[in-house]
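Our preliminary data section would be incomplete without showing what the modeling component actually yields. Below, a chain of 304 amino acids is followed by its predicted structure, encoded as tokens that our downstream tools consume directly.
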Amino acid sequence: MKKDKYKVVGIGEILWDLLPDGKHLGGAPANFAYITSLLGDEGTVASRVGSDTLGSEATKQLASLGLAATFVQRDSEHPTGTVKVEVHGAGQPRFEIASSVAWDYLEWTPQWQELARETDAVCFGSLAQRSPQSHQTIRQFLLHIPPGAVRIFDVNLRQAFYSSQILSESAKLAQIMKLNHDELPQIMQLLDLGHVDEPSSARRLVSLFGLKLVCVTRGERGSLLVTAEETCEHRGFRIQVVDTVGAGDAFTAGLVHHYLRGCSLEAMNDSANRMGAWVARHAGATPAPDSAGLACALANITAC
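Predicted structure:
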């Protein structure tokens, strides 16, 4: 049954991106939930921070972004996550991710179980599954959401924090798999599958894992959406890139927002590219909603 407003969860890492111009709250779940909320759904972050200054600042920052910290756990033994981000070339980021931090110890609790039962869609990645505890907690969450809820595996390969086992297990639990054009051949190799071109590899993943949709992002060249029956390409938007941190998460939020409403591949592709482009025009992953261009981006999103 279609709703006016869906409960959409980003589960996994929450952290501070340490950028050249200062620190910005980041991590795919927070970035994704923020854009989800801007689009009109209930974006929810399920993560864990330390009982430290950065943890307190993170929950305050979530509130300033209009996101509740109700499902952000506090850890008295491990620090809040940080990532040193260096931006190179055409705004492309390079990450140095701190290890053994709070989000490596996500805990399966009755509160999270209740959240899972109310979830309409959940987005998860590979990075937050680098530790056995968080891997198991995320798996429990995915197994407890309603049968009709949507599971989105936003791959996000980072450093060496992934394996063929994690990728395969995650794809089997998902209906949507999103990855970028650099990750696709890596994943095909890790899974011992041949890679010829993007459309054929995406169709192979759809078939192998029973996915409803595979999305391949191409940076400034747009994106490719593939289902068992259709293929849709988008050329992207020509913009002045400041940095691309969080642009992929914004893309995913736009995609999921329209997927939940049963929109066409063309509408999903257009919305996703517009939101990704809007974030890439700004520094950091969560630009203020009154920033120039947001109203235009939302007004021009293709209707279902």
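Residues 117 and 146 are 6 Å apart (CA to CA). The chain has one domain: 7-297. Preliminary results of this kind motivate Aim 1 of the renewal.
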